[in-house]
Amino acid sequence: MIIAPYACHHNQSKGRQFQEELTLFRNHFQRDRDRIIHSASFRRLQYKTQVFVNHEGDMFRSRLTHSLEVAQIARSVARTLECHEDLAEAIALAHDLGHTPFGHAGQDALNECMKNFGGFEHNPQSLRVVDVLENRYAGFRGLNLTFEVREGILKHCSKKNARLLGEVGLRFIAGNQPSLEAQIVNYTDEIAYIHHDLDDGFRSGILNFKNLCDLDLFNEIYQNVIHMHTSVTEEQILNETIRRMMNVMIKNLCDETHKKIKQFNPQSPDELRQMPPLVDFSPLMARLMMQIKKFSRDFLYQHPRIQAMSNDAKKTTTALFNFFLKNYDSIPVSFKVDEQDTRERVIADYVAGMTDRYANNYFNSTNP
Q1: Do the domain assignments include residue 338?
Q2: Is the model's pLDDT at 366 over the cut of 70?
Q3: Would 10 be classed as within a structural domain?
Q4: What span, in angstroms and rounded, lies between the C-alpha atoms of 106 and 52?
Q5: Which whole number is the average pLDDT over 1-12?
Q6: Which of 18, 194, 203, 277 is within CB 3.0–4.6 Å of 140 for a Cys-Cys bond?
Q7: Residue 297's domain is classified under what CATH number?
């Protein structure tokens, strides 16, 4: 593995919250990756919504398949930029562990329930999952991950909350950047979801080639595909177009980031943290990305079918939160890990950890 001076190195990690003996067969970041994969929170992602609720069909993306796609792209980009692939993979696999059931609709509802109690956002919740809520080891709570993975999971945070997080929160107070590996995951997360949401939207019947061709990048590649391949199915045309779009974006990201690395010439991870963000698209690709995001919002996320699912999800999430306010003893003792946590925070932890199916079943059992 070729690692540049500006990349994080497992032998120079800032360490874990609790000291542990080294392992013979894995570096620090590989060990973190394995702990994430074996966690209960990671398994539950299989039944958590990306866009389409789990019962809508088996072929749509879930939070689990999304995380795997992000990890695959992040490894490729990290390798190209001579960064630590294992670190990028671990961050990608953990970045959505704090997501609620029912995707962003569930998060919005839980945030509304928690508005007077500190709010709720899935990104800081992902860090809370790996630091506190997972309970697999005899010597400590959480997964005891390295600083670098925890830093990468915490994508954004208010200064007020950052002061409560110790060293991992300091960069938000100082205005510094995370590692290049963390910056890579931020962008590969976007690359993954904008493409697979278009794919799932087409398979659902909500999107079609006519409206997808309103997208400049899609249309350009689509026209090339149908010109080169005249005897293929619609599914093959879609797959080929999406695949080529993704390749164009990944190449653009790597090329632009290489330019910025050459311009700023960071010689260590700490030096890089003092610089502006170095991972970026070209201005043209950034505009094309914004066009796709707006298109998905207007034609997919706000489609009546998706909105109906979202409204049901918000109703279910809110009802569960209110149910546990009145029936706090129904929450397992394993979630009541810190006497300083309010009842509302414990309830949010429990509801956020549910899968779509479990949340629906619990809602139906309490609302016969």
Answers
A1: no
A2: yes
A3: no
A4: 12
A5: 92
A6: 18
A7: 1.10.3210.10
Residue 50 near residue 61, CB atoms below 8 Å: yes
If we measure between CA atoms, which residue out of 263, 277, 106, 300 comes closest to residue 185? 277
Give the residue ranges of DSSP H helices in the chain: 28-37, 40-44, 63-80, 85-94, 103-113, 122-128, 147-153, 159-162, 170-174, 180-204, 209-212, 216-228, 234-264, 269-273, 283-296, 304-326, 343-352, 356-366
Which letter does DSSP use for residue 330 in this model? G
Provide Rg for the chain, Cα atoms: 21
Q: Is 158 left (phi over 0), alpha (psi -120 to 50) or beta?
A: beta
Residues 75, 202 contacting (CB under 8 angstroms): no
pLDDT digits (tens, 9 = 90+) for 97-137: 999 999 889 999 999 999 999 999 999 999 999 999 999 89
Crossing angle (nearest 10°) for helices 180-204 and 85-94: 50
Q: Which residues lie closer than 8 Å to 365 by C-beta, 6 or more apart? A: none
For residue 335, the 8-state DSSP code is G
Residue 27 phi, psi (nearest 5): -80, 175
- Total number of domains constituting the chain: 1
pLDDT at residue number 197: 92
Query: Is residue 329 in some structural domain?
Result: no
- The tokens for 125 are 């919740």
* Spatial contact of 75 and 88, defined as CB atoms under 8 Å apart: yes
Give the tens place of pLDDT for each residue, 154-194: 988 888 888 888 899 999 999 999 999 999 999 999 999 99
pTM of the entire predicted model? 0.95
**Encoded tokens for 74:** 């992040």
Structure confidence by residue, pLDDT tens digits, 21-42: 888 899 999 999 999 999 999 9
In a domain, 13, yes or no: no
Structural domain boundaries enclosing 255: 26-303+314-323+344-358
